[in-house]
């Protein structure tokens, strides 16, 4: 048994033997090697290492097909029409090579996930923790949630196997099912001998069982594959077989097409191209991030497709396109100063949620005006998460990683030291603020040498106290001096040379709302101290506790779905059985 003293979240994990339906169908697998944690996937905060270092696998007496039985667990739950959040934890500690383990997952006798390939899901690393979440409705009168794993038809006869490392089950209350997607229920977790435990969560190498209640929508597992797959044929139909007349953009990953799915939902379809600068890791990162988070100011992922060697991402359609197109280089009518402030505030809210909405936070790494999209009402949403990274773990100040991003927006400290923090996003956002004010590119090689780099050029004017000299001519006589002053100071602070001297996105958001208030009614706030705010209305900011934005399900911060950490923060009963 793993006690609260061995768990980062004070959970109790119990062996799963008592829940096995047919005990002789399973046998325990163990390893002494620590798990290979992947960025953006499971962490030690999710479950202890020991959970990932043990598993139940099929007890294969011989390789005759007649001897293969699925491993099945029956977890007792309260009878009724309840929904349950079920999290299944996996860590492939039984394979000696990649792409050799394929299996199916069944819940209450129904195929929940077919042909699971942990090698793909865990980004081609063995012994890498991974979890998948489901929402399950009780079978009438059964009083149990039945979980089974069994071999896939894709498995070679001599390699047929299936594993499960841990399970968590939680009862959900006040749950409203989505009409389009299955959402994930609460989980039971358990493990066999030292390979299974009961707790609030279950992770690789053990099955664990816990019963708790909560009020929340669950988020997908690390890569959020379940319920998001869209058949390639549906995407072909939606885009008229990738008709060139529907092409709306292109980037490092590939071409972007406008499309309409069968239920009349407008979507943007991003299709990866062979040889594109962004490949499989970025594809999986995008799914990882967008399937875990949901916020009014972050572009939503509708689904994905990886059939026939395709890498396709499907997003909600943003009618007005990139912010950059409304600032320069097109014939679109110029945005008013009020509109620009509202867009900056919206983007800041999305970034603030990204940085603080989970324990580690997420660093975007590619903030620029083309990655801030506008819907039909000019509501800003941050997009393109292919380069995103999880923030530093507890007791760490940064993430050491190779430099990626866009020239002109790159944090110089990150570029020099290859140490990434959320302040790198703050720097990039500061460049966007000057881009919004001046209506010119971050880098323009056609200008004189002292004007090529927007950040350097604008900072020179800001430090001279003459920022009004470089304001977009379309904004002349629109901006109140007090509003311009605080806006310029905010952008200047974002572009500080060292990250430690830059504000947080919560501070930036507060200042931008102050700028908006000065512009719209001219009144100064009595206390000009930075505060974390995530209200949807720039005129009436809502203050929330620092570092908790978007975690509590009842916070009106624009969050339509919450992170997994949010699910567990809302438990009615927080002790494992």
TrEMBL record:
Start and end of every Protein kinase domain? Answer: 242-515
Quick one: a GO cellular component term?
A: plasmodesma
Q: Which GO terms describe its molecular function?
A: ATP binding; protein serine/threonine kinase activity; transmembrane receptor protein tyrosine kinase activity
Q: Which InterPro entries match?
A: ANXUR1/2-like, Kinase-like_dom_sf, Malectin-like_Carb-bd_dom, Prot_kinase_dom, Protein_kinase_ATP_BS, Ser-Thr/Tyr_kinase_cat_dom, Ser/Thr_kinase_AS
Basic and acidic residues bias (residue ranges): 523-539
Tree of life domain: Eukaryota
Q: How does it sit in the membrane?
A: Single-pass type I membrane protein
**Protein's UniProt name:** Receptor-like protein kinase
The organism is Sesamum angolense
